[in-house]
Predict the structure of Cytochrome P450 76C1.
Amino acid sequence: MDIILGQALFLLCCCFILSCFLIFTTTRSRQTSRKATALPPGPPRLPIIGNIHLVGKHPHRSFAELSKTYGPVMSLKLGSLNTVVISSPQAAREVLRTHDQILSGRSPTNSIRSINHQDASLVWLPASSARWRLYRRLSVTQLFSPQRLEATKAMRANKVKELVSFISESSDREESVDISRASFITTLNIISNILFSADLGSYNTKDSINGVQDTVISVMEVVGKPDAANYFPLLRFLDLQGNRKTMKVCIERLFRVFRGFIDAKIAEKSSQSNPKDVSKNDFVDNLLNYKGDEAEINISDIEHLVLDMFTAGSDTSSSTLEWAMAELLRNPKTMVKAQAEIDRVIGQNGIVEDSDISELPYLQAVVKETFRLHPGAPFLVPRKAESDVEILGFMVLKDTQVLVNVWGIGRDPSVWENPTRFEPERFLGKEIDLRGRDYEFTPFGAGRRICPGLPLAVKTVSLMLASLLYSFDWKLPNGLVSEDLDMDETFGITLHKTNPLHAVPVKKRVIN
């Protein structure tokens, strides 16, 4: 009897312990599930418009401020568009590395859809598509590989010499230079020569080919303009802001220019009895000669791919140079320090060359500090979740737009000391670079969507900046002092100075 009673008590104890274990594990599982499926916090929403009223003229600033309250993974409702804003290096790492594949989708804007650019664009195609992989490989191997950059080194140097010559003439006349316009023409011509072996811009506005430089600027402006249809897709057919119409007009104008060069190359190819020297091919030559197993490339594909290169390359590089010059003019001691380093390395009667940049660590730090404070694309290009995914314990739902606020991360006081000051010294002796491995500093993005033009952009900006500082001293016009220099910015797909920078060059040495 005692044995039976003991066995019963033993079984009862086992059942009690097992029940407690099951209750504990079930409760723990539910808590974990609730934690994992919690949506990111965010500000209260208004009916219909959601949080659109909180965006303002400077969304990168508004969202950085809101993230102080709602955290580094913040949820917003912009009309019908679910949006998550990322505002810390840890959260950026989750998006750009850990869940890069899931978060590599795109949400094309209304203006992009108006020209069907999302179906033939390296920027807007899904990263999972075979065509995107083909475009990516072609851009890396035929445009931005070390071998291609070396092959175009002399051409880039000549374009920068033309910039210096133009500024020298302005110096002789004691006239100020529009830094934004001059640097834009230089970068436009560098890119057009890589693509077509021809200049498309001119420092003399009367000589500009079919107004290409103005049209490229207009395209960048319309892509960055607010558009109600991006938040309320039902309004697309109304084109309330006129963005679709403007975009179509600009693209048709650019495509006519592109088609002229393409047709000329096709005619030249058909008339040649001997094949052209491959080493002299430009990007469009290589595209026209392309034969691959994955997909065919037609003339329309080439036009759209060339459009990506023009819009992504010329505007961001010229804008970065303008911001760098503005910061140096606001910080004269920093400019003097950069000029002293260049003079020491180059000497008094030389020319700055590509190979010199590696010997100019302070200049490289100036460029990095400019990218930190003034990233070309403050939110990078918006990403889209291809499926539900967890980021730092919050669930980001499928089809949500994801914005990485690299502008906000670059000015976060918990990440950077004296974050609003222009201090290139913070990069000296440190391994922080631009190649998407340091998530507190990713102005070109990271992962599979990192900007493929990063090597060319950094080389172009560094060479232009070093050449301008080597050949000239600079001062502000009309007696303006550095403390009063206007640094207001206008938000778009890229961040521009609201008022273009004008500065007076003073020759330091004889310029041939």
Observations:
- The chain is about 50% helix and 10% strand.
